[in-house]
Amino acid sequence: xxxxxxxxxxxxxxxxxxxxxxxxxxxxxxxxxxxxxxxxxxxxxxxxxxxxxxxxxxxxxxxxxxxxxxxxxxxxxxxxxxxxxxxxxxxxxxxxxxxxxxxxxxxxxxxxxxxxxxxxxxxxxxxxxxxxxxxxxxxxxxxxxxxxxxxxxxxxxxxxxxxxxxxxxxxxxxxxxxxxxxxxxxxxxxxxxxxxxxxxxxxxxxxxxxxxxxxxxxxxxxxxxxxxxxxxxxxxxxxxxxxxxxxxxxxxxxxxxxxxxxxxxxxxxxxxxxxxxxxx
Length: 280
Known about the structure:
The chain is of the alpha/beta class. It has eleven helices and eight strands.
């Protein structure tokens, strides 16, 4: 694994590049994390893919190791940052895997650069069906932006707060204090202006338009008990993406790669055309 720091005009982008331990079964896999998180939560997925694929794992500007930033990064700016990263790595084609807001970024990148994206896997994402849903989401975004003024990084050391924070994202909260602390710390230290700008742009109808424009093999993996991305919008999302395949994971919340890592990685490997594997 090597770590690359790309100095963008608005701030840094830090990414890890893992080289496959066997001859690669396809182009590199780019794992794009969601809002409030960092590339760290993809670690188990990396270990389940890197026997057959090079894997690229960035921390998007404004979170994790990609701090501080000099200007807020909305979703179009994040897409441009990912494109710059792939150019720097001289990667002509990738297989995109996006989680939550990272799925929206993957949709936008694939639509913008169809020459770059070979396959697309969307995880725990559903599209807005109408303007009423977008208006409601924007209201929640503004309230959340105000609440972010109350954050402090020392809160990550308070077990009861970590647990309360995690209950929204998991069907069964993992018994892993360090995992929960790392996730909570990512949220607590995320650049607030970037958090607000990226959340606001998540309601842009351009994302739906980009989804309609996709012309590449696409898989949507969703969890039945996801409290963040409503399962009720899944049929609309599948219908919005030409030829989209759908797989459900049961008894699972917003992070299937953490709650059901082997099942999730198995679905990913099957879609990417690699034999299944299970870590001991």
